[in-house]
């Protein structure tokens, strides 16, 4: 049988699973066309649904098999209902998305969240990874047809001429590194595993041990979004037994925490969301006494939160704060940090820009 | 209903294309979410300012289904597949679901699925495929080439 026939056979079998068409969406059209104010960016609307999935999937991401669970109790409950959002749920996008029809400007082609790197905030500190959302529109100059996934975008940032905010972000993934193949599979344990087959340049890493871990965590966190549970790297289809300057063995499947202790141990795991003027930032941390501090630069917003575990174990944290009257300036920056156990000075900063394109507004 | 001007109203357009759009959506996001994608796409299309001026409504609807499906990304199908496999272990999986096919299609991006479906199933020319996906002809060819590569085991 030729390839064409085999593809047609595949499509025929797929078509055989086609359900009955849904009824004409007459009743909901009325609701949809209402399009209430305030106007929201299509990018934010698209991202809201993605965030909902990510938010529900993150606990899953960190409880793979025999991996160390995050925190004490909160990772024992799996999200069960991320499938069909009802129109009245808080992250439902249908009533608003009539603004994102083909041909309108800007037409959002995709919204990807990749994990970028931040330099250490002090000489003896460690660099961090932070989520950064890239919205691809027809006008963004990013050739959408060349990227299939967040990890594709991450390894092609330079090729695709994606401009990153100066001073905050960079990528530790060398430009020569490429993903040459990708495979999805279900493990016997019911996990979704992605295998990324990399080119030879991957094996060299960055040339620096710390940056190697940074590069790995960028790739791992970027890939392990949504329902992907674990990641395996191969080169030429073979397991990677020696990576980078320290010859790291990557032959086994990776979760999110395998090398997380080698970088800044404050990791914001998903984009910032805002609802009714309340900002929410979620992440994981392994910090002294599980205590984290935060502040929004040039405002009086600051405070402390506790992770669900600390001083040697990873816990989840959530920071919430209300926007001041009149809202935050578009260039506002959230800083999350810890106080040194030795002298109390603030260290290990993670800086999150609260710009309009990085904060996602959830429907009320 | 046909209106006095001879132009189909939205409901008639929908009834005309709902089945093929659902089939298209099934290829893009799987059978579980196809209906939702079609509903969402039609809501967007019929509610858009452009809709009254659209000359090729069929192509426009295909393009909107593609846009909505793209937002679903890979997560939904992946999760559903896992759910089905879990269900199989207790022998309650629906018999009409072809897990092998879903697993094969899951290897493809939404763009690749769209290109494959429109080329091999709808028998469209590269120009028409490009129009319905809202991409260039070159992009369609790249998607097809990559799709063939990713379907390697299936084609072997």
Detailed description of the structure:
- The complex is a heterodimer of chains A (364) and B (156).
- Chain A is α+β, with helices and mostly antiparallel strands.
- Chain A has a domain at 266-361: Immunoglobulin-like.
- Chain A has helices spanning 3-15, 26-32, 42-61, 150-155, 201-204, 209-223, and strands at residues 108-118, 128-137, 179-186, 192-198, 230-235, 238-239, 266-268, 272-275, 278-285, 291-296, 302-306, 315-322, 333-339, 346-353, 359-361.
- In chain A, the strands form 4 sheets. In chain A, strands 7, 8, 9, 12 and 15 form a 5-stranded mixed β-sheet that branches. Chain A has a 4-stranded mixed β-sheet with strand order 3-4-5-6. In chain A, strands 11-10-13-14 form a 4-stranded antiparallel β-sheet, with no helix packed on it.
- The model of chain A is unreliable at 27-104 (pLDDT under 50).
- Chain B has helices at residues 10-29, 34-47, 57-72, 75-88, 99-106, 110-121, 126-133, 137-150, 152-155.
- Residues 1-6 and 88-95 of chain B have low confidence and may be disordered.
- Chain B has one domain: Butyryl-CoA Dehydrogenase, subunit A, domain 3 (Up-down Bundle), CATH 1.20.140.
- Chain B has 9 helices and no strands.
- The longest helix of chain B has 20 residues, at 10-29.
- With 156 residues, chain B is mostly helical.
- In chain B, helix 1 packs parallel to helix 3 (57-72) and helix 6 (110-121) packs antiparallel against helix 7.
- Chain B is globular.
- At the A-B interface, helix 1, helix 2, helix 3 and strand 3 of A face helix 1, helix 2, helix 3, helix 4 and helix 5 of B.
């Amino acid at each position: 049988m030729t390839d064409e026939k085999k593809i047609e056979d595949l499509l025929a079998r797929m078509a055989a699973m086609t359900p009955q068409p849904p009824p004409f969406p007459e009743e909901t059209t009325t609701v949809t066309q209402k399009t209430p104010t305030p106007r929201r960016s299509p990018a934010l609307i698209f991202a809201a649904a993605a965030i909902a999935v990510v938010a529900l999937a993150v606990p899953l991401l960190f409880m793979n098999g025999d991996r160390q669970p995050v925190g004490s109790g909160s990772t024992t409950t799996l999200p069960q209902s991320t499938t069909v959002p009802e129109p009245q749920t808080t992250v439902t996008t249908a009533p608003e998305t009539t603004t994102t029809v083909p041909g309108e400007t800007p037409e959002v082609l995709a919204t990807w969240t990749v994990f970028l790197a931040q330099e250490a905030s002090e000489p003896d500190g460690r660099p961090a990874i932070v989520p950064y959302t890239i919205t691809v529109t027809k006008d963004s100059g990013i050739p959408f047809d060349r990227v299939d996934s967040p990890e594709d975008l991450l390894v092609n940032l330079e090729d695709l001429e994606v401009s990153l905010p100066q001073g905050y972000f960079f990528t530790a993934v060398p430009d020569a590194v490429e993903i040459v193949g990708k495979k999805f599979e279900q493990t016997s344990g019911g996990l979704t595993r992605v295998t990324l087959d990399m080119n030879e340049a991957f094996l060299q890493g960055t040339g620096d041990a710390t940056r190697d871990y940074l590069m790995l965590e960028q790739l791992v966190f970027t890939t392990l979004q949504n329902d992907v549970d674990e990641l395996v790297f191969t080169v030429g289809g073979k397991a990677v037994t020696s990576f980078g300057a320290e010859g790291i063995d990557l032959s086994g499947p990776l979760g999110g925490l395998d090398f997380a202790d080698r970088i800044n141990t404050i990791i914001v795991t998903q984009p910032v969301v805002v609802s009714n003027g309340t900002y929410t930032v979620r992440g994981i941390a392994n910090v002294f006494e599980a205590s984290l501090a935060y502040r929004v630069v040039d405002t009086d917003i600051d405070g402390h939160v506790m992770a669900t575990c600390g001083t040697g174990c990873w816990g989840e944290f959530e920071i919430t704060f209300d926007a001041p009257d009149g809202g935050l300036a578009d260039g506002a920056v959230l800083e999350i940090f810890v106080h040194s156990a030795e002298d109390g000075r603030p260290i290990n900063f993670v800086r999150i820009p609260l710009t309009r394109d990085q904060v996602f507004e959830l429907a009320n | 209903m046909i209106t006095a001007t001879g132009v189909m109203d939205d409901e008639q357009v929908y009834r005309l294309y709902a089945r093929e759009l659902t089939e298209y959506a099934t290829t893009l996001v799987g059978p579980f979410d196809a209906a939702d994608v079609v509903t969402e796409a039609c809501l967007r299309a019929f509610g858009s300012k452009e809709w009254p001026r659209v000359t090729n409504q069929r192509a426009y609807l295909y393009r909107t289904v593609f846009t909505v499906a793209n937002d679903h990304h890979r997560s939904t199908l992946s999760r559903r597949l896992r759910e089905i496999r879990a269900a199989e272990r207790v022998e309650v999986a629906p018999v009409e679901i072809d897990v092998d096919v879903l697993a094969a299609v899951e290897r493809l991006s939404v763009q690749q699925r769209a290109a494959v479906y429109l080329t091999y199933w709808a028998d469209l020319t590269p120009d028409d495929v490009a129009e319905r996906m809202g991409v260039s002809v070159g992009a369609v060819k790249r998607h097809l080439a990559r799709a063939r590569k990713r379907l390697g085991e299936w084609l072997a």
